[in-house]
Each structure stands twice: as structure tokens, then as C-alpha cells.
């Protein structure tokens, strides 16, 4: 066991537990358990808001899969990944103030609360809750596998043991601290991700003999690694443009990101979050994917892309510093998992249990139900991750596309188009969900574009056409 690497990782987990215990004090002092546990009492400042959005979006894909793809494909994948820079900007600029005002007016704690009040329809909320549970359950399992694989490869312990350590770490601080614990630990994890990226990028460049030396090495191996079309010219301009919809502007439709636009304290906090978030996301995404490309010149011959990041860290850094830097992907994975966990729990407790099973539940009943549901969901994901299917990691991007196809227009047009109504929202969600599944199954990358493009177009047309053809919405928008 490599103790030099292990000790910094353990210290990182201890800090996360302390943050969870600190956040749990707010649960006992808050006037509303639901507002505190699932939304942090809407008191997030600009820095914490920016960091929690960055940490939630940054996942195993950004720190493990992304650099691995860049290692194999070259600078073209860096260009593709940079579309994620606009993520925080788009979410807060498009949803931002309008979303926060309406959420407070509706007293909405979850995204589904907002949709239910905006469209005055229980079927909209039921379909939304089912979509969140199904798609995010798969996405969460993929992240747990990524976290366990990282611990397994770095420390050298069996996969099941690594999975148990990861699961226990996440469950403890989410159950005891709720949304505020997630937001505070996301802030710590966001800082770790940024510092880890910078340190590893500089060390990789030095180990490769400088940028000029690395570029020359890559050119000698395969000049296509330096082109915007990939190592085998498989990335066309049309595909790259359409991929930006999936990981860039389409992120507005992801519930786990959108709910953060409901939780900021005031307009000043939102504006600070836009500036901080855009800069930090740009630095992390550019840095991590450049590390993937540059690693090819430093550590050639890595066959499994997911091992590029830990392998290059252990190669170019001393053990103790590698342990600190490898806390970055661990932070990215944990911060994504904890946010998904609290979102799925809120969909079960707030949107299904309280709304339709036990509307008169007492505060104490809701409190214990929330703890139990969060624990049961976590244990269920653990069980699924013990024997993951081979394609599990791809379910992450599959879940992204599915959620964006379902939610993007009911959220965005629900905010800005008064004629949008429940019939338009329902048809848009159903058409988005089914068409995405059909395209993904029978015509992935139809006409050379990412699978998510046509379902989003179809769901938009459906929302507009059905809303115009039926009765106007009842809820007030101003």
C-alpha cells in the first residue's frame, strides 16, 4: 500500500466529514427541515454557488474519462471539452433571477415543485419525478464505479473494499448534513479540483520537456493528434457543433444543475457566481484535457484511457503530492454523487411521498423519511455498482441526454413564454423522452450529429404546437 498517496486522501475525507458535521447543526436550528435539507434555506453566496455548480457538473467524466479520451484522440477532444466553459454562464443567465423569483413565489423546494405549480398538473410532476429517479439512478451508479476504481488503482485494494469506503464516505456526510453539507463540501472539492489541475498540468509540461518538446513528440507519432478532427479524422465539424448542445447549452435542462439556480442568496451572489464559475470551469476543463493530450508524450502506451490521469500523476509527482492531486478526481466524483443523491431523495420524499402518499406527514416523519430514503437509495446504488454492466459508464452521457430532452423546454419556456401550458409541457416531456430512447437505440448520431439534437428539436416543436392548440396556463408568471 502506498502510504504517501493514501495519507493525503484520508485527510481529504476527514475534512469532508467535518464539513458534514458543521452543516448538520443548521438542520437542528432551521425553521423548516425541508427548506434546509433540500435547498440550504436559499442562503448560498456567490463563491459557494459557483463552486457547487462547478463541482456538481465536474464528474468522473471530466477528470477520468475526459483526459483518457484526449490521450487517445488528441487536441480535438480538448476543443470538444471547452464547450463546457459556458455551462455555468448559460444556466445562471438563462434561469438566474427569473427562476429564483418564481421559485420563491411558488415556495418551490425542488425543480418538480416549480414545474407542478407553473403548470398546475400532477402528471407533469409525476413524469418529472420518474424521469429523475430513472435517469439519475443510472448516472449515480456510474460515478460510484468511477470512485471505487480510482481508490482501487491508487491504493491497491480490492474493488469491493474500495467501493465500501467510497459509499460510506458519501452517505455519512449527505445523510447528516443535507443540501448545505453538499454545497459546503462542493466548495472544498471545487478548490481542490482547481489546485490539483494546475499542479498536475505544470508538472506534466515539465516532465515532457516543455510544450514545444511535447508537441514535437506528438507530431512525430501522429500529426492528426494536433488537428481539430482527431487522431483518425473521425470528428467532423457538424458532430463537434452538435456535441456542444449535449455538454454546453443543453445543461440548462439538467435538474441537478438547475436546482442550484434556486438556492442563491441574492442577485449579487448570482453575478459573482457567473464570473467565478466561468473562469474556474474554463481553467479546469482546459487544464485536465491538456494533461490528457500531453500525457501521451510523457507516459506512452497506456491502453486503458481511464488510467491516464492517476498514472501520469504518480509518474510526474512525488507520492505525497500525487495523493493531494488525486484528491481532485475524487472530489469531482464525490461532489457529483452527493448532488445526485440529494436530488433523487428529494424526488422520492418531497415530490412523491409528501405530495401523493402522506400529504399530512409531520415534520419529524418527513425528517426520518428523508434520512431513510437517502440511505436506501445509496445502498441500492452500492448494490448495482458491485457488479456493474460493461456499458455502465456510458449511461452517464445517456442520462444527460435523456434529462435534457425531458426538461429543457418545460423549464425554459415555462419561465419565459406565457402561452406555454401543461398540455404542451406534458407532450414535450413524453416526446423528448421517447424520441431520445428511439434515436439512441436505432439511429445514434443521426445525420452525423449527437443523439440529443433531434429529440430536443422535436420536444420544442411539440411544446409550442400543443400549447398553442390548447387552453392557456392558469398560473401567474409575474
UniProtKB/TrEMBL annotation:
Keyword presence, Transmembrane: yes
CC annotations in GO: plasma membrane
Question: Is the keyword Cell membrane assigned to this protein?
Answer: yes
Record family assignment: Belongs to the sodium:solute symporter (SSF) (TC 2.A.21) family.
Q: Which InterPro entries does the record match to this protein?
A: Na/Glc_symporter_sf, Na/pantothenate_symporter, Na/solute_symporter, Na/solute_symporter_CS, Sodium:Solute_Symporter
- The species this protein belongs to is Falsibacillus albus
The residues that cross the membrane are 6-23, 44-64, 70-95, 123-145, 157-179, 191-218, 238-261, 273-299, 319-344, 365-386, 392-416, 451-470
This protein's name: Sodium/panthothenate symporter
Give the location in the cell: Membrane
**How does the protein's chain sit in the membrane according to the entry?**
Multi-pass membrane protein
Gene3D superfamilies in UniProt: Sodium/glucose cotransporter
| Cited PANTHER family | SODIUM/PROLINE SYMPORTER-RELATED (PTHR48086), SODIUM_PANTOTHENATE SYMPORTER (PTHR48086:SF4)
Keywords, A to Z, come to: Cell membrane, Membrane, Transmembrane, Transmembrane helix, Transport
Checking Pfam families in the record gives: SSF (PF00474)
The domain of life is Bacteria
Amino acid at each position: 500500500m502506498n502510504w504517501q498517496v493514501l495519507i493525503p486522501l484520508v485527510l481529504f475525507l476527514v475534512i469532508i466529514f467535518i464539513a458534514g458535521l458543521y452543516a448538520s447543526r443548521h438542520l437542528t436550528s432551521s425553521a423548516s427541515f425541508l427548506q434546509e435539507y433540500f435547498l440550504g434555506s436559499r442562503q448560498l453566496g456567490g463563491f459557494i454557488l459557483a463552486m457547487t455548480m462547478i463541482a456538481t457538473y465536474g464528474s468522473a467524466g471530466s477528470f477520468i474519462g475526459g483526459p483518457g479520451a484526449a490521450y487517445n484522440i488528441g487536441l480535438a477532444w480538448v476543443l470538444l471539452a471547452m464547450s463546457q466553459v459556458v455551462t455555468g454562464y448559460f444556466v445562471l443567465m438563462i434561469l438566474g433571477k427569473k427562476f429564483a423569483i418564481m421559485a420563491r413565489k411558488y415556495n418551490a423546494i425542488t425543480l418538480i415543485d416549480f414545474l407542478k405549480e407553473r403548470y398546475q398538473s400532477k402528471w407533469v410532476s409525476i413524469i418529472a419525478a420518474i424521469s429523475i429517479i430513472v435517469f439519475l439512478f443510472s448516472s449515480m451508479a456510474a460515478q460510484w464505479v468511477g470512485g471505487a476504481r480510482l481508490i482501487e488503482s491508487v491504493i491497491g485494494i480490492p474493488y469491493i473494499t474500495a467501493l465500501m469506503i467510497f459509499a460510506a464516505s458519501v452517505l455519512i456526510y449527505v445523510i447528516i448534513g443535507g443540501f448545505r453539507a453538499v454545497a459546503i463540501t462542493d466548495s472544498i472539492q471545487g478548490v481542490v479540483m482547481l489546485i490539483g489541475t494546475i499542479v498536475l498540468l505544470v508538472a506534466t509540461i515539465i516532465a515532457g520537456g516543455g510544450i514545444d518538446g511535447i508537441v514535437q513528440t506528438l507530431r512525430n507519432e501522429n500529426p492528426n493528434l494536433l488537428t481539430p478532427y482527431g487522431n483518425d479524422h473521425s470528428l467532423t465539424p457538424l458532430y463537434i457543433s452538435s456535441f456542444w448542445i449535449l455538454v454546453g447549452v443543453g445543461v440548462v435542462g439538467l435538474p441537478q444543475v438547475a436546482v442550484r439556480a434556486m438556492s442563491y442568496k441574492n442577485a449579487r451572489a448570482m453575478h459573482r457566481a457567473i464570473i467565478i464559475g466561468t473562469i474556474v470551469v474554463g481553467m479546469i476543463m482546459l487544464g485536465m484535457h491538456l494533461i490528457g493530450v500531453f500525457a501521451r508524450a510523457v507516459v506512452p502506451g497506456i491502453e486503458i484511457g481511464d488510467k491516464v490521469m492517476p498514472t501520469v500523476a504518480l509518474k510526474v509527482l512525488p507520492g505525497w503530492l500525487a495523493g493531494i492531486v488525486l484528491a481532485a478526481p475524487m472530489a469531482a466524483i464525490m461532489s457529483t454523487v452527493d448532488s445526485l443523491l440529494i436530488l433523487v431523495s428529494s424526488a422520492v420524499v418531497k415530490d412523491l411521498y409528501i405530495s401523493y402518499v402522506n400529504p399530512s406527514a409531520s415534520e419529524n416523519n418527513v425528517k426520518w423519511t428523508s434520512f431513510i430514503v437517502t440511505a436506501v437509495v445509496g445502498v441500492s446504488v452500492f448494490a448495482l455498482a458491485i457488479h456493474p454492466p460493461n456499458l455502465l459508464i456510458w449511461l452517464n452521457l445517456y442520462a444527460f441526454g435523456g434529462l435534457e430532452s425531458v426538461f429543457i423546454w418545460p423549464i425554459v419556456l415555462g419561465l419565459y413564454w406565457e402561452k406555454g401550458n401543461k398540455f404542451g409541457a406534458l407532450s414535450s416531456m413524453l416526446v423528448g423522452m421517447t424520441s431520445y430512447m428511439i434515436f439512441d437505440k436505432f439511429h445514434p448520431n443521426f445525420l452525423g450529429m449527437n443523439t440529443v439534437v433531434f429529440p430536443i428539436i422535436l420536444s420544442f416543436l411539440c411544446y409550442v404546437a400543443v400549447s398553442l392548440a390548447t387552453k392557456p396556463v392558469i398560473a401567474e408568471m409575474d
